[in-house]
Amino acid sequence: xxxxxxxxxxxxxxxxxxxxxxxxxxxxxxxxxxxxxxxxxxxxxxxxxxxxxxxxxxxxxxxxxxxxxxxxxxxxxxxxxxxxxxxxxxxxxxxxxxxxxxxxxxxxxxxxxxxxxxxxxxxxxxxxxxxxxxxxxxxxxxxxxxxxxxxxxxxxxxxxxxxxxxxxxxxxxxxxxxxxxxxxxxxxxxxxxxxxxxxxxxxxxxxxxxxxxxxxxxxxxxxxxxxxxxxxxxxxxxxxxxxxxxxxxxxxxxxxxxxxxxxxxxxxxxxxxxxxxxxxxxxxxxxxxxxxxxxxxxxxxxxxxxxxxxxxxxxxxxxxxxxxxxxxxxxxxxxxxxxxxxxxxxxxxxxxxxxxxxxxxxxxxxxxxxxxxxxxxxxxxxxxxxxxxxxxxxxxxxxxxxxxxxxxxxxxxxxxxxxxxxxxxxxxxxxxxxxxxxxxxxxxxxxxxxxxxxxxxxxxxxxxxxxxxxxxxxxxxxxxxxxxxxxxxxxxxxxxxxxxxxxxxxxxxxxxxxxxxxxxxxxxxxxxxxxxxxxxxxxxxxxxxxxxxxxxxxxxxxxxxxxxxxxxxxxxxxxxxxxxxxxxxxxxxxxxxxxxxxxxxxxxxxxxxxxxxxxxxxxxxxxxxxxxxxxxxxxxxxxxxxxxxxxxxxxxxxxxxxxxxxxxxxxxxxxxxxxxxxxxxxxxxxxxxxxxxxxxxxxxxxxxxxxxxxxxxxxxxxxxxxxxxxxxxxxxxxxxxxxxxxxxxxxxxxxxxxxxxxxxxxxxxxxxxxxxxxxxxxxxxxxxxxxxxxxxxxxxxxxxxxxxxxxxxxxxxxxxxxxxxxxxxxxxxxxxxxxxxxxxxxxxxxxxxxxxxxxxxxxxxxxx
Length: 864
Fold this sequence. Notes:
With 864 residues, the protein is mainly beta. It folds into six domains: 17-339, no CATH class; 351-400 and 635-677, Sandwich (Immunoglobulin-like), CATH 2.60.40; 407-496 and 626-633, no CATH class; 503-618, no CATH class; 681-772, Immunoglobulin-like (Sandwich); 780-862, Immunoglobulin-like (Sandwich), CATH 2.60.40. The protein contains 13 helices and 52 strands. Strands 15, 17, 18, 35, 36, 38, 40, 41, 43, 44 and 45 form an eleven-stranded mixed beta sheet that branches. The protein has a four-stranded parallel beta sheet with strand order 2-1-4-7, sandwiched between helices. A four-stranded parallel beta sheet has the order 9-8-10-11.
C-alpha cells in the first residue's frame, strides 16, 4: 500500500556503492588493482568507475591545469554521459594520483579539497605568515545536515565528498579498504583518545575536547577520553586518536579497530610521500585506522584548518567517515583526507526484503512489486525508498516528510512547550522551528536551545540546579499523518566533567620600563582572597620573563593547591618587535560548574584581557548541564507496494535495487538487490564466455560471443568495469576479445547490450570473471595407465609439466598446457618402463610485472 507522497527530487547521503565514483590512474597497476579491489568490496556498479590517464609521473604534485585536464573535466564528462550527475556524492581517488595542487604564486591545495569545493587562492606569504583563503569556508562543516542539501559553497556548485586511498604499497592500501568495510554497524566499544601534548603550538585543539566528550557522553554508545601526553605509543587498541605533536617515528603499542579515524595537528601530516620530520597520516593507517587527515603545506595552527574532535561525535551518530571529516573541518583547502569514505561503525541500518519476488523473476508490462522495510528502532524510522535499475537511479518510491499538523511536546522542568508542524516542512525546518519555540520560554525554563541540522542542543543556565534536577520529557501527538518524531538523549540533563578555565592575554613593549608590574588576585568560592605579584624593579625583566614568575607564585601556593583551588598553565609566548605577547590559562582543580566560580582579577602596567574580575568560565557552554533532542521523520514499519512499468526498459537480465533510508540526517542506507528478467517482445540474445571458467589468468585473452535472435541489429556493445569495452555494428553476432591486462586483477562483470534497428534493446545476463595473478598452491592428482595429471587451473594460464626419474636429479620440462576451463589435464604418452615423478607449475613466461612465484606439487607414479 503506497500511502505516502513522492518527492519531486531525490536526496542522497548516508552512502553506499551506488553513490560513489572510483577514479583510477590507468598508467598505474597499483591504482587499477586497488580500484578493482575497492569496487568489489563496496559493490560499486561498473559504470561508477573512471579511468584517467595521468602520465606526469608525480604522485605528489600537479598543476591546477593538469588537475582540471586529467581529473576534474573527465569526471564531469563521465558523470554526465553515464547519467550519474545527481546520483554520486562520493569520489575515491585510488593511489598513484597526485595529492597536491599547485597554482602559480598561491599556496598549494590538496587534491581532495580541490575536488571537494574548488581551488582556494591563498597568496604565498612565507615564511609562516599564514592566512585563511577568502571563500574557503566550508558551509557543510558543523551542519549535521544532509550533504546534498547542505553543499559546501552553493547549491549550483559541483562538489563531492572526496577521499584518497593510498599507501606506500598495495597491500597496505587494501588494508585501509578493509578497515572501512569491516567497520559498518559493528558498534565498537574501544576508546577514542584526545591527547593534549606539551607542544603549545600544536596542542591547541584541547580547547575543543570537552564539547565533543560532552556530546558523545549523551550518545551513550561511545567512549572518548582526554589525556595529557606527548607520546603516541601508549593507547593500545583504540577507536581513534587526535594529537598535536611534531614527530614520532612510529606508533608501536597503538593499533586501531576497523573504522577508526586518527590525525595529528602538525604542519605536514598530509605530505605523505615526502621527507619531513612530521608525523604523517600513513603512520596511523599502517596500524589499522580507516582514515586520517593532514595538511599538504604550512597551514599555521588555525583550528579551522584541522578536524574538530566533533568528528567523533558525528561518527557516534552514524555518519560515514567522509561526512565526519568534512563536517569537522571549516577550512579544509590545505588538507588531504586519506581513507575509506563509507566507513560507518555506528550506523543503524533498517531491514528490508522483497516480498514475492524470487531471483530471476520474469516481469513484463506493468506489475505490482512490494518492499517490506522495518526500522532498526523507533528512533531511526524509515523515511525514503528509492528504486535503482542496474545501478542507476530510476525513481523515488516514497519520501515521507514531517507530517503537517503533527504536534510535538517538550516538557522542561514542568514547563510544556508545544510545536505544531507546518505544511511543507523538512526535518531541518522542524528542528529550527522547535528550537525557536523552546527559546521563546527561555526565561521560564532557564534553558537555551541551539539547532544543529536535525539535533537540538539544550544548555541550562540555571546555576541553582544540577543536571539531575532538570527533567526533560518529550512526546509525539497523533495528528494527521503521524510521521514526525522527536527523541531525547536522557530524561534528565547531564552534568559536565569539564574543568572551568579562564584565558588571559597580555601585550607589552619589548623592553618594559622599570617599575612595571603584574598582579593577580584570586578569590575562592568560600570568599578567601589571595594576591600574587611580580614587579620589574630594575627594568631588566621582559614580559616573557615576568609571566612565568607570576604563574610560579600561583602554582606554588598551598592555599590554591586543594580541590577548591586552581592552577596556571598553557603558557604561550611570542615576541615580535616591538611587542611581546603572552597568553595563559587559569584552570580549576575540580571538575564542574561550581568549581569554576573561582574569581580572578589581573591588573598590570600593560595591555591585558580580560579586565576586571572574572570567573573561570571561558568554556561556559562546556560547563552548563546539557541534553539533546533529535528530530526524525518516517514510520517504523513500511510495507510499500508500487507499480513497476517495464514497457520502456530493455529486455533481458537486470538488477533491481531498492535503497531504504532511515529518517534522520544520517540517512543510513539499506541496499536490497534482486536479479529479474524483463521480457516485452521477442528480442533476445545468447551471451557466452569462451573462457569456460570463472577464474582466468591475467595474461589470458578473454573472449565473449553474442548472438542475437534476429538479423535487424544496429549494434552490440560489451560492458565491464569502467563501462564500454567495444562495439560491433550492423551484425547479429559479435565476438569480443579483451586482454585481461586491460582490466587487471579483480572480479569483473561482463554483459552485452544488443540494440535492434527499431531501438529496442536486450541486456544479456552478467558473467562474473575473476582475473588472478600468481597461482595459489593447487592440488595435483594422477591416474594411470597411461599417467594422466589433473589439477585445479586458471583458464587461459600457461602451466609447465615437468618430470624426473630420480628425485636427486633436476626436473625436466615435458610440456606446456593452457587449460580452457578450471581443470588442467595432461597425459604422458611416453612413459617407458621406469619410475617417474611429476611436477606442475605456473609457467614462468606467463607471470608478468616481475611476479615470479612457483607453486609446485609433486606426484609419484611407478610405471608397470
